[in-house]
Design brief:
Blueprint lengths: L1 H10 L9 H11 L6 E11 L6 E9 L4 H10 L13 E5 L15 E7 L1 E6 L2 E9 L4 E9 L7 E13 L4 E11 L3
Antiparallel strand pairs: 1-2, 1-9, 3-4, 3-7, 5-6, 6-9, 7-8
Helix pairs in contact: 1-2
């Protein structure tokens, strides 16, 4: 069944080309293993060229890697929400590093530009979404994105290596849409 193929790609960190995010989330929901609580991160991007005003919708550019640091933070927040506020994960950062993703990473490899606070929403059951727009401070080729709990430092929820890099100039922008899906045990 197609749902199984979609899950296989997502679990391997491969962006399933030709599927909308809601189709991917539905596939993961319907194929989740019994007695498994799971989280998946999905990143979409739109690059706007400052000089021309043209926006390139890059669509889904990454799936995975929710970090071990976030999982630990989540567990800590269950007993000390004042010290570990779960609603803090709204800062978008990006960089030029192209090192492979690993759930043990705690920072971007080569962060550039200034992190921005996104707009958090809960668009549907089991989905957290944050949308943030980063402005280029110079010419860069962006290869990675992260969601953090602070404007500097902080805990990284997810590091995404982009399937399509974004080459931009000063004052170009990239609008990132990050979706964290959380599926309860089946």
């Amino acid at each position: 069944m197609i749902y199984g193929l979609i899950r296989e790609k997502i679990e391997s960190g491969i962006v399933p080309v030709g599927y909308k995010l809601n189709e991917i989330i539905k596939a993961l929901f319907h194929t989740r293993p019994k007695n498994v609580f799971e989280m998946f991160g999905f990143l979409s991007a739109k690059h706007t060229h400052f000089k021309t005003g043209i926006t390139d919708d890059l669509g889904l550019v990454s799936c995975q890697k929710v970090t071990q640091a976030f999982a630990e933070y989540l567990a800590d927040s269950m007993t000390a929400s004042g010290s570990y506020p779960i609603d803090a994960f709204d800062y978008h950062g990006h960089g030029t590093g192209d090192t492979a993703e690993a759930n043990t990473q705690t920072a971007l490899v080569t962060e550039v530009d200034t992190r921005v606070s996104g707009s958090p929403t809960n668009p549907s059951a089991y989905v957290y979404r944050s949308v943030g727009t980063i402005t280029f401070s110079g010419a860069h080729t962006i290869a990675e994105h992260g969601i953090f709990s602070a404007s500097t430092g902080g805990t990284m929820l997810d590091r995404s290596l982009l399937s399509t890099t974004v080459t931009g100039a000063t004052d170009d922008t990239v609008e990132y849409t990050y979706n964290l899906t959380i599926n309860a045990e089946a």
